[in-house]
Each structure stands twice: as structure tokens, then as C-alpha cells.
Design goal:
CATH architecture: Orthogonal Bundle
CATH superfamily: Hypothetical protein af1432
Order of helices and strands: HHHHHHHHHH
Number of helices: 10
Number of domains: 1
Strand content: under 5%
CATH topology: Hypothetical protein af1432
Number of strands: 0
């Protein structure tokens, strides 16, 4: 049930900012915390409760900043419900990370049985990422794909598979918006006649 946020959310925001203080968004100087704030906003606007909103702020914390040790700290600070969502939204805790395709296929399989809270946070995460990719693609064209570990076709495949799962399982309206963004990105990225602005220096 949604309601007013408590000091737990403020603590989570400060904790997330400390964990990700040195990170930026791929290919930019934008602080990574901007993504975490955006995902939390989407979760709250879609009716998520405080646990889901805190998990949104911390959804990359264990995967990118300390693995299982960080996950245990999240559980200690914010409880089992938050830690369970964060764990379910992480595709690995290993360093170095396993091969990209294996991780993504396992994550897709996991989503098919995920709880509504996990689906909400994950879909918000993927929607914000897809929006950012689409925006940068309009500005950079195919130069955009160089910033990713996988190629253009792999990224497009992954987002279409994600969208298909969310379209079936929810949450709405985030799933419908993700489908629109992913289809528009796919159309733009596969249009060989499209002209692009040059990449930044």
C-alpha cells in the first residue's frame, strides 16, 4: 500500500548516493544517482510502496558496489523485503561478471516467475534505460552502441524480450510505455536510411 515516505527512504537515498558517488551513466558525465532517482520516481508514480521505492534506489547497489556483502548490508539496514527485490533485480554478484548473453538469458528466465514488486522495480529500471538509449540514439546515431558490452542487435534483442515479458506480466502502465519506447528504438536503429548527427568529440 502506498503512503507517505518515512526516514527509511531518506536513509536509502543517502546510502545509494554514497555507494554510487564515483559512477556516471554510460558514455556521459551524468551522475549515476540520476538513474536511481528516476527509477524510484517511476516506481512511486506507478503505486509502489516504500519498500519498492527503496529497492529502486538500491537496485544496482549489490551488483555494482560490493556484491553479497552489500546485499547483506541492505538487508540489515532496510529489511528482507527490500533486499529480496534488490537481489532479484541483479543479474550477477560475481566479479568478473559472467558472459553477457548467459547473464541476460538467466535474468529473462527469472523474470517470468518474479513477484509483482520485482517486476515493478525491474520494469521501471528498464524503462528508464530504454528512454536514455533512445534519446542518445537520436543524438549520436550508431556511435551510441560502442558504449555497451554487447552489440546493437544484442541490445535490441534483450529489450524486446524484456518488453514481451512485462507486456504479459505487468506492471501497467510502465509495461505499455516500455513497449512503445522499445519498438520506436528498434525501428530507428534498424532504419538504414536514417541520417544521424555525428558523435561528440
Amino acid at each position: 500500500m502506498q503512503g507517505l515516505l518515512t526516514p527509511r527512504f531518506e536513509e536509502a537515498l543517502l546510502y545509494a548516493n554514497r555507494l554510487h558517488a564515483t559512477q556516471t551513466r554510460k558514455g556521459s558525465d551524468v551522475p549515476y544517482v540520476s538513474h536511481l532517482l528516476a527509477v524510484a520516481s517511476l516506481v512511486l508514480e506507478a503505486g509502489g510502496d516504500e519498500d519498492a521505492a527503496i529497492a529502486a534506489l538500491l537496485h544496482d547497489a549489490a551488483e555494482d558496489q560490493g556484491g553479497l556483502e552489500t546485499l547483506a548490508e541492505i538487508q540489515h539496514r532496510f529489511g528482507d523485503a527490500v533486499a529480496d527485490i534488490v537481489a532479484a533485480c541483479s543479474d550477477t554478484f560475481d566479479e568478473p561478471k559472467p558472459p553477457w548473453h548467459a547473464r541476460k538469458r538467466a535474468y529473462l528466465a527469472h523474470l517470468r516467475d518474479a513477484t509483482p514488486a520485482v517486476l515493478l522495480v525491474s520494469c521501471a529500471d528498464k524503462l528508464h534505460n530504454a528512454r536514455a538509449i533512445a534519446t542518445d540514439h537520436r543524438r549520436l546515431g550508431d556511435a551510441l552502441w560502442a558504449r555497451f558490452h554487447a552489440g546493437r542487435n544484442d541490445i535490441l534483442w534483450y529489450y524486446r524480450e524484456l518488453s514481451a515479458i512485462f507486456s504479459t506480466r505487468g506492471p501497467e502502465p510502465l509495461a505499455s510505455e516500455l513497449a512503445l519506447v522499445v519498438e520506436a528504438l528498434h525501428a530507428a536503429a534498424t532504419d538504414t536510411k536514417r541520417s544521424h548527427l555525428p558523435a561528440d568529440d
